[in-house]
## 1
Amino acid sequence: MMALHHLAFRTADVAALASFYREMFGFEVVRDALPKSLWLALGADAVLMIEARTDAETPIAAGSMELVAFRADERTLSHVRERARERDCYDGETPFTVYVRDPDGRRIGVSNYRLRED
């Protein structure tokens, strides 16, 4: 079986993007190599690597519907919804998932949808 090891998001502003993920979702720093990269804990031994992109790399396409979704309980989902509306990055929701746009335009979901019954 495989599990998530890491996600790597490339950005023109590592510090700003990392600040967004820390404030919006409460992710803790596990490795600080600013200005080149900053790693945030996702739990279960996985990390979100925020890395500097080169000028030759294409930024996220405006309006992209590509998605990364994080699992959360109902309380966390509500907090993210509130923070997203306050920060004007709220991008809608379904009965189980709240969507936000990060500063680079990535669509990020926070979901409490149960993938399987226990």
Note: The chain has two helices and eight strands.
## 2
Amino acid sequence: MKPSELRDKSDDELKTLEKELRDQLIKLSIARATQRMRNHSQLGKIKRDIARIKTIVRERELGQGVAAT
């Protein structure tokens, strides 16, 4: 998911999305442990999406918004 798409969402939507991604991550981890997982790259993608969400939430907490480049 792109950061611009995430920035358009409200705080509640981001929290809900993070919870859903964490649930998916747990399910994929179990599938990997039981050797039923076929696409291992999904784990990394979900972890990156969670990190993006946490970064955006933290930016909002600090009042930074989009960082100027």
Note: The CA atoms of residues 21 and 27 lie 10 Å apart.
## 3
Amino acid sequence: MAEKRNMIRVVMVIQEYHPIIGGAERQLASQAALLKNKGLDIHVVTRRWPGLSPFEVINGIPVYRMLSWGPRPIAAILFIITAVWKLYWLKPDIIHAFELLSPSTISVLSKWLLHRPLIVKILRGGVLGDLTKIGSGLFGKLRIRFVLNAVDVFVVISNEINDELRTFGVEAERRIFIPNGVDTTRFTPADPLIKDTLRIKLGLPDGLLTIFTGRLEIEKRLDLLIFIWAKIRRHIPNAYLLLVGIGSQEAYLRSIAGEGVIFVGEVEDTAPYLIASDIFVLPSISEGLSNSLLEALSCELAVIATSIGGTTDVVVNNVNGLLVNNESPEELMSGLMRLLNDSDFRRRIGVAGRQTILEKYSMLRVVTAIRNLYSVLLSK
């Protein structure tokens, strides 16, 4: 049983956190703030990178950054040892880990020490997914068994992840579907006048604007998108591709980009750029459930994405977006050309996409589901 206190204390464990911001970090930040508003005592434990303070309060949430220095194996061990100590000191009522790697190892060890319920959110399935990563190496099978047997509930964000857990023998009652969520009041559609005003403010060109938001990494296949864009520009000279984000591939992508490709870099708020755009594109070979995709749908953009991971749970082809084969550059180019040339189709699938988000993926729905899950676990 959880110790008696005025507020339920939840410690969330994640590899990285603010100011290092990716999809998982943004989800945790949004959920933590709303759960705090619902009366929960939320704390975050994460890695400490050089230049960052060991403790900080971010938007009312205490964030503890634990040692993680030296060569990779030593850094991982340091993180695990110091984080377990911190959880023992915090004595949470519930442990909530984000990812199956170090955060889950930390959380399983803490569960054994504290006898508290443990929730693990799996961030990604498929060839680059959590289960694939944790299962690789000499002791992969033992590590999978170590984690899978100890977790009380897995939060799954896609059917792909759910199927993988089923394959590993995780019972249905331990697989709870709670997708990523999006703030539908911040990521919202705008009329043409507001779009034009935003474009002027952001220094964006007139014309048809297709946007990608996220990390500029190999699995996003932005090199392929840039190659396709050069062909598209021959047919539609006023078509622009907007890349919002940073990553290890940025220098290479800049070196191969031609006219009509705009690199924005890292921005604190992607909402204005999405609202100002016409089309959202996601050409990845691996995704869990893309926050950028959900945000674009919420902004009523026409979306085109590869048919992978959690994307196929959200997007119904030709209804609220376009799905293309991730092994077919021809399909990606054909789909982009269709969206660029057909404003009525863009408008129709954009409206349907926004409705999908309101019905199934609003952050308020997601946080309510998480709060209910906490109550169920604490009642056992």
Note: The chain has 15 helices and 14 strands.
